[in-house]
Amino acid sequence: xxxxxxxxxxxGSFHHQVAQQYFGESILLExxxxxxxxxxxxxxxxxxxxxxxxENSIAGSILPNYALIDKNDLHIIGExxxxxxxxxxxxxxxxxxxxxxxxxxxxxxxxxxxFFSQHxxxxxxxxxxxxxxxxxxxxHNLKGxxxxxxxxxxxxxxxxxxxxxxxxxxxxxxxxxxxxTKNKELPKEEINKAxxxxxxxxxxxxxxxxxxxxxxxKLNLTKIQSLPIIExxxxxxxxxxxxxxxxxxxxxxxxxxxxxxxxxxVLGEYKQGKP
Amino acid sequence: xxxxxxxxxxxGSFHHQVAQQYFGESILLExxxxxxxxxxxxxxxxxxxxxxxxENSIAGSILPNYALIDKNDLHIIGExxxxxxxxxxxxxxxxxxxxxxxxxxxxxxxxxxxFFSQHxxxxxxxxxxxxxxxxxxxxHNLKGxxxxxxxxxxxxxxxxxxxxxxxxxxxxxxxxxxxxTKNKELPKEEINKAxxxxxxxxxxxxxxxxxxxxxxxKLNLTKIQSLPIIExxxxxxxxxxxxxxxxxxxxxxxxxxxxxxxxxxVLGEYKQGKP
Lengths: 275, 275
Fold this sequence. Notes:
2 copies of one chain form a homodimer.
Chain A: E1 3-8, H1 14-23, E2 27-32, H2 35-43, E3 49-56, E4 60-61, H3 63-71, E5 75-83, E6 87-90, E7 101-104, H4 106-110, H5 113-117, E8 123-126, H6 130-139, E9 145-149, H7 151-156, E10 160-163, E11 173-180, E12 193-201, H8 206-216, E13 220-228, E14 235-243, H9 247-260, E15 262-270
Parallel strand pairs in A: 1-2, 1-3, 7-8, 7-9
Antiparallel strand pairs in A: 3-4, 3-11, 5-11, 6-9, 6-10, 12-14, 12-15, 13-14
EC number (chains A, B): 4.2.1.51
Protein name (chains A, B): prephenate dehydratase
Domain ACT (chains A, B): 195-271
């Protein structure tokens, strides 16, 4: 039976691209309107796993998605780094000079600023979603209009790519995580990365002490992000990702952190993705 | 002469509200289309200072603005924490039952999800900006349409607030920074906070060592955020905010960090805002 995967967005989105590249082609996609809806799909068992964008090399952490994972006790069971490639696409047979308007998500348009400054005759129109715009062009046979979207959108909606890789900053990586409601996907030997959350009092040096312990246990930090706890001033929460070679080292650190920090929580234990 | 302050957005925006509360009422506002435009206004001396949102208690750091400050060598000379209050506003005399549509920025609409779920007869329409929508309602005398925007927008565009504080998560703080092209606003005695950026090799424990040094110099961390340096794998950059009681302690730490880290940079030295 095909694996059911929930994503935010529709077929042809970057989330769809990640789901395909991570799980292979034979998946059943549950298209959700929002990340909240993705969580509901998992909890209602309509989908077994979900793919969620979690941080971007340009815009940073997507904290609302961290909060969703945390609040709903989801587990991160894998990660995937996608190089975001923006492509200009239109109905087959359309040429660059036929295009009068380009529709896409505001962020996608912004990321292609330099390209469009070289084509000043094209009017930029903001839309809700990259893939939905591609879909709309196909559905209504819209001539003179192009979309900026993922390569997979051209494939899904039978469009022709007029220009590939039109984003300004060429290294535009987004990190996605694979989540589910239950943990323990992998045998311990295959786990070499973990995402942790903990809180610390505002005692001087408390974070340094925690990092020293991690270092002594041979854990290597790949990400750290502090966030103030709104209800409790002078109390901080941290999202931390660590990589390690031996699970037993990580287990030892985990025991120490449980004692040294408050509200210690493992958001996920998984195999490191290729950055 | 009135102080010229650049903001992203128009009169009645949250940036405008911060500019007024930080500098007082007698400012000349330079309304900019984008944060890039804000930077241009400063560099061309059209404005002396600018106000920029830098992090949000819900969405986290606004890394593109960090990047703008860093890349353009701007200096943070102050900070301000604003409690974001979303208000529903319409033409004077309009009642709640008259409202058929609410227009606002998608994020603002999302932040008021629970309120609108209690008013299912109202259609939600996404627009580019909160304040611009309020302005449009006034300009075209639009009946039956309300905007979600800052209280100051109602004041600017002579609208009536139909419902105040309609955002779901009540503690929705945004941190703004005040920036200019030259540093040294304040005498050393008044400075008790600094924003720093530095890079570290991926040697185990390098961050813990740096934090230990800060701690020994009596610097207290209020924010830490790692970001991978895209061009250099296994090299990390950190944005760090520290508070301190004595400037000389901070000066000592600065000298040590210059030696211990690479690309050490002070993004700003200023007086801590009230969180």
